[in-house]
Design goal:
Blueprint (H helix, E strand, L loop, with lengths): L1 H16 L3 E10 L6 H4 L8 H13 L1 H10 L14 H11 L1 E4 L13 E8 L4 H100 L7 H6 L25 H13 L8 H12 L4 H8 L11 H11 L11 E5 L12 H29 L29
Antiparallel strand pairs: 1-3, 1-4, 2-3
């Protein structure tokens, strides 16, 4: 009983002198789909609720996140600071012994079991509720800032990609434009050269024709002079001129053959020859020359080239960039209020505990008494075992008959008179 009472007393002293330890916990679950709809509808960043919960859990477990919260809220951690320790050493003790992240069993794939539980144990005098709730808010805010930074980088990269596409389209347009202008100029040069060659050939042809005509006229003039034809005449008229007569006769001549040129008479032939020899240019005699001159006049300036060179806003003529410009405008006007982005649902916030979890005084006292009872029983058993093993003194009692000497002996075979 004394051992039991002593052990119970020692356990009671330990239970009442040990600083009490409190424990708080908070549970996080996936957010509703509509909470992340604004982010997912951006079509550049997809974050399902389950992934958001995992990211927040990773942030809660991150050493850097915990150290950042520790540094930002040193007033809450005064109880963990000890003389001779650096800030990081004090945090290391808190991080190792005070806070624990609990995840569901990975074998359970049910969405109802998706949660993250964060537990914190702390001594009396520490505002554990403020620390745990503040740390969760800090981790969520940190992850929200990280998502905002990721989104900003993705948007900038996407804008750079779209800008590259527009620049490529602009370069392609410039190349096509220069190629088009070069092609038009080449076509105009070729057409101009062809027309000039044709004009030169036509003029040479007309000059040759005029020379041939003069030669024909010279020959016809010689014949007409030989025949004495001064005025235009016909073969039948020439035959009748040799006849004499005073009667007036009207003749009608039908002839499907061309009348020789010399029947035009010397006067007409010489007049035509003189005109041909005095002619400076034969261009008016050929209609094609006027048409060629018109085409050459049109080729002096290419209106399509002038229009292409006068374009001021050439981006309007870029091909296939309208969807790219629409996407660029959408990204530049993309506005997501990250402060309203709810990554997780806090299913259970940390609340002020009603009683400490350590030490369990009643249990410690009971265990002390039980241990004391065991110790007492063990001591009694040891004592009993020791007593049973100690040697006992031997005694001999002899019967005494009347008339015989009384013998008292302790050794066998020895008799001594009393």
């Amino acid at each position: 009983m004394a051992a039991t009472a002593s052990a119970g007393l020692i356990a009671a002293i330990y239970a009442f002198l040990t600083p009490p330890q409190y424990e708080v916990s908070s549970v996080l679950r996936p957010a509703a789909i509509n909470e992340l709809d604004a982010l997912n509808r951006s079509e550049i960043y997809t974050l399902p609720p389950g992934d958001a919960l995992i990211r927040v859990g990773a942030s809660l477990e991150s050493y850097d996140t915990r150290l950042g919260f520790f540094r930002s809220n040193q007033k809450l951690f005064k109880a963990f600071e000890q003389p001779g320790r650096t800030l990081e050493q004090s945090f290391e003790e808190f991080n190792r012994n005070s806070i624990e992240l609990i995840l569901p069993d990975p074998k359970k794939a049910n969405s109802l079991s998706a949660y993250i539980k964060l537990e914190m144990s702390y001594p009396k005098g520490v505002d554990g509720v403020a620390i745990l709730n503040g740390f969760i808010d800090y981790a969520i805010a940190t992850e929200r800032e990280q998502i905002a930074a990721d989104l900003d980088v993705i948007v900038k990269n996407r804008l750079n990609e779209l800008k590259g596409k527009i620049d490529a389209a602009r370069s392609s347009y410039e190349v096509d434009k220069e190629a088009r202008i070069a092609s038009l100029r080449e076509t105009d040069s070729l057409r101009r050269a062809q027309l000039q060659d044709e004009l030169k050939a036509l003029r040479a042809q007309l000059k040759t024709g005029r020379t041939d005509r003069v030669a024909q006229l010279n020959e016809a003039i010689g014949i007409a002079k030989s025949l004495g034809i001064r005025k235009p005449s016909t073969p039948s008229a020439l035959g009748e001129s040799d006849r004499s007569g005073s009667s007036s006769v009207m003749r009608t001549e039908i002839n499907n053959q061309q009348i020789p040129l010399y029947f035009m008479g010397v006067e007409a032939l010489e007049a035509e020859r003189t005109a041909l020899m005095q002619r400076k240019s034969d261009d008016f005699t050929e209609g094609r020359i006027a048409q060629i001159a018109k085409e050459l006049q049109l080729l002096q300036s290419n209106r399509e080239i002038e229009v292409l060179n006068r374009r001021e806003n050439e981006d309007l003529f870029l091909a296939g960039v309208q969807p790219v410009r629409a996407e660029e405008a959408r990204l530049r006007n993309l506005s997501i209020d990250m402060s309203r982005l709810k990554l997780v649902t806090i299913d259970k916030q940390a609340l002020e505990p009603l009683r400490p979890v350590k030490p369990r005084k009643v249990l410690i006292i009971l265990l002390g008494m039980v241990l004391g009872g065991f110790i007492g029983a063990f001591i009694v058993a040891i004592r009993h075992l020791v007593k049973t093993r100690q040697p006992q003194p031997q005694s001999v009692v002899l019967s005494v008959q009347p008339g015989s000497p009384t013998m008292v002996g302790s050794d066998a075979g020895l008799n001594k008179p009393l």
